[in-house]
């Protein structure tokens, strides 16, 4: 089978793979459609697959015993999702819910193991991908635990701007409608407290709303509030 990569495919968090190794993923995966509201996997399911999003969006959530949902990650076109460990049978720690009709490439663990065993350069790229996920998780929990809810909120806004941001004059438009409930679920706060914090940021002229979407007017102020470490965009994303 030819190993010429399909350059039209999005890369997302798989940009750490070389073109040759990315193409090995593409020819291995089996395409499947997931309608909005369905799930790639549930918390507690066996973690034996990876999912590459060719179209659509998926959110990863963690639920408490009381039923409260914490949104940990938002994935889109070009991202690979999953916790597949090629050497140990594990269960998913999160639930992956499809929030837009999606086309997904499914990679079975047995096929992943074959690629790792046969191609040492692929195994190195796969370790890089796992390392990015570990760093993303570490920085996410740093935001949630070290600088309070205002720090967690401003960090989340910065991550949203890196993921969905577009130039808007001298500002940054987050080109996705994100509700206050979404933001509260992303930082583990109540909707009312998020409303207050956003109102304070608007009074300080750090952000505004345009057609229901958030516009960041003073990125430096947000960075100061969350003690931003200026992580690269593949880490500082939602």
From TrEMBL:
Residues 17-116 form the Cyclic nucleotide-binding domain. Residues 147-220 form the HTH crp-type domain. Keywords: Activator, DNA-binding, Transcription, Transcription regulation. GO terms for molecular function: DNA binding; DNA-binding transcription factor activity. SMART domains: cNMP, HTH_CRP. InterPro entries: cNMP-bd_dom (IPR000595), cNMP-bd_dom_sf (IPR018490), Env_Response_Regulators (IPR050397), HTH_CRP (IPR012318), RmlC-like_jellyroll (IPR014710), WH-like_DNA-bd_sf (IPR036388), WH_DNA-bd_sf (IPR036390). One of its GO terms (cellular component) is cytosol. PANTHER family: CRP FAMILY TRANSCRIPTIONAL REGULATORY PROTEIN, HTH-TYPE TRANSCRIPTIONAL REGULATOR ARCR. This is Crp/Fnr family transcriptional regulator. It comes from Paenibacillus lutimineralis.
